[in-house]
Amino acid sequence: MNPHELLSSDHVSLKKHAAQLRAAMDERPQRLAEELAVFQKAVQKHFKREEPYYRVLDEGKRLEDRGFVHQLRNDHAAVVFTLESLSIRLRKNGLNPDWRGRFDTLMNVFLPHLDLEEKELFPIGKKMLTPEELEGIVRHIEACE
To answer: Do the beta carbons of residue 46 and residue 31 sit within 8 Å?
Structure first.
């Protein structure tokens, strides 16, 4: 298996979980905090699994578009921060229109971010990363299990 398949598999799972969270707002609001916590941990684990991919691809300034990887990393930080904020707001104020709006804003960053990795980042990595680099990334991903 290669890192692209492993990370793409994460993306499928995270997109499914995001849809389940959206449904939980209407169908299971009493379980939303629990489901949000599970999603938050899955996102954090995924970002940890991706970190060596980003680091190796960005080493030596190989990418001409320096801002591209930095923007993707900024997305990671924004998603982690927003998930924590949503968790706190849900505990303090419950599910309300403000929370829903913030959740929608998060998904408007998170889901396109996953698509951007699939459509633009991974094709770059497939061209630029050596077999040894890919193998090292896979070892890291498997160590995160």
So the answer is: no
Task: Please report the pLDDT score of residue 61 as a whole number.
Answer: 79
Q: Which two tokens stand for residue 129?
A: 């990363």
Report whether 35 contacts 28 (CB < 8 A). yes
Residue 5 vs residues 8, 9, 137: alpha-carbon distances, Å:
5, 6, 12
Which domains occur in the chain, in start order? Answer: 3-143 (1.20.120.520)
Dmax over CA atoms of the chain, in Å, equals 50
Distances (CA, A) of 45 to 27, 40, 51, 67, 89: 27, 9, 10, 24, 22
* Model pLDDT for residues 45-67, shown as the tens digit of each residue: 999 999 999 999 888 778 888 88
